[in-house]
Amino acid sequence: MEISIKDELYSDIFDMSNLQSSLRPTTNSGNNDSHESEWCDVWSDDGDLCHDSSDKLDKTSEMDREWQRRHDQFHTVGYRDGLMAGKEASVQEGFNVGFTDSVYVGYNWGLVRGITSALASLPNGLKERMVDTKEMQNKFQQLHDSVQSRSTVEMLKVFHDYLTRKSEESAKNDNSSTCLADSSDLSSNDSLLENYQKELQSLIDESGLKLHLDTKE
């Protein structure tokens, strides 16, 4: 009797223990499933966030590249326009200075060539009426031949060399100089243009021609 009562008591205890043991894995399994589900949701949310962040970074990078491209493009265009504007301004300034320096000399040289050529081309009868003596006629002819022997390129080179030397002297002395200086300041080549002008004026005065070189300075 005692054995049966003990067996029944222990049997109930064993049954309860077995029941708890059987229920425990089920509960843990349920908890694990719940945690896994939560983690899956978290990972799913993070994936969406990462995807959105990646899109934003791509758009930002694209905008940066476009900005850099436009910046380089306009920088190049502005640099080129600046060079062209500076070049044009420099050329214009050089032209203005060159024109101011050369117009007086060129004008006088044109007068010398034009007058001597006009006198040389006159018929002998008209030439004798304008210039009394044969000697004076020969002097005009010699001046004409000498002027015609000088090419325009040669005279330009003479004038260019003169301006170069005067510019160097002006830089050394720190003094401004005019285009034409006194004959004492010029070498033989430098005074060539001025000598032609003076010689023509002298012949005109000696021959009695009513002609005056209205030189511009």
UniProtKB/TrEMBL annotation:
GO cellular component: cytoplasm; nucleus
Cell compartments where the protein resides: Cytoplasm; Nucleus
Extent of the signal sequence: none
Protein's UniProt keywords contain Disulfide bond: no
Annotated keywords: Cytoplasm, Nucleus
Keyword Nucleus: yes
Residues of the Essential protein Yae1 N-terminal domain: 78-115
Pfam families per record: Yae1_N
Protein name in UniProt: Essential protein Yae1 N-terminal domain-containing protein
Biological source species: Solanum bulbocastanum (Wild potato)
